[in-house]
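#struct-pred
JK: can someone run the complex with adenosine-5'-diphosphate? inputs below
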Amino acid sequence: MKIISINAGSSSLKFTLFELPERTTIASGTFEKIGLEDSFYTIKYNGEKIRKEASIPTHTEAVDTLMKELLDMNIVSSLDEIEGVGHRIVHGGSEFTESVVLNDDVVKRISAYNEYAPLHNPANLLGVEAFRKALPNAIQVGVFDTSFHQSMDEIHYLYPVPYEWYEKYGVRRYGFHGTSHKYVYNEIKKFLGKDNLKAITCHIGNGGSVTAIDSGKVIETSMGFTPLAGLMMGTRSGDIDPSILEFICNKKGITIGEATNELNKKSGLLGVSGVSSDSRDIEDAIASGNERAKLAQDIYASKVANYIAMYNNMLDGADVIVFTAGLGENSKDMREAIVSRIHSLGVTLDLDANNMRGEFKCVSSKDSKIPVYVVPTNEELMIALDTYDLKNK
Ligand code: ADP
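RT: done, structure tokens with the ligand placed:
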């Protein structure tokens, strides 16, 4: 069965077409700069990649163009072959605890959470609207970044603020990257063959979050009410003293919105190093003796290490630590910098095993008290698998 997995952003749309249950990727691609003058798209199929410029004023044209290309390139012989469309949706509040079949009523309920994720949810829903028109016979499924984390208990999701903020306005920890944490947890659980596995999953890419999971239930995750919380990230600050906001607004004469934008876009690795948000640039700068780049990497590693230590405590001892996403999968230096800061847990790397990129692999030494694995994530596949499951229900 062919299932397409969709991630619609405000000016982009990414897709991956899968054959399930075989888990084969048939084709993938992106539509970029939607609504701008120089919009274009790329499609990968059969080992080749095409790139075309086209007028793509809205998501509807992106989806129509994609449907036409799927037919013209003989990727499908009829659009009816695509039996399911899985949509990444960033925020489902505390209401959507699992993936859901999308109909008018559900879409309306999801849009109630737009104000929690104003940059993402409305764009995700534009993708939904376009695909409901283009593929009316396919099942449309919403897969939320927040769902997996809704198994958290109150003690872990409530902030110690006036209770009314939670009751009236929904101020609580929601958590994000749930699709990725769930995927790598399921993969490592299958591999280790342990159902009641206690894992600490570290998704560290441009954005980053750490999650403590016990027997498939999230105990706690480092992102919060928004994806700005928790770890230091590529351009995001992660947790800081909230009083800094008012102080810096007064000092710089800027609004809270402007200051929050600096916390989202000008902080993290970029803010501290002054070099880049990309850890490859940071590693190059460190190699050429840039001290602030080294400082940025050290702060980053220290934040991740401290979350691992805290979550190991919450889990009363983890069975496994997992690294995933851009940095977790590819940066041996960052893995080393993190693990060197959790020696108190008796965790050590095998430096030879760690000297690799992008493989599913155990990278800890034989005598490490907790094994450390790299597990490549695949959020697109997770979205397609949930869609497949709901189609077959
Ligand atoms: P996103 O959160 O946008 O999905 P990714 O998970 O793709 O991001 O992670 C992107 C980050 O991964 C880049 O910013 C880069 O810092 C890091 N990265 C990717 N490849 C490497 C590499 N070979 N070495 C070090 N860092 C890498």
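RT: quick notes.
The first strand starts at residue 2 and ends at 8.
Residues 205-207, 234, 278-280, 325-327, 330-331, 357 surround adenosine-5'-diphosphate (CB under 6 Å).
JK: thanks, will look after standup
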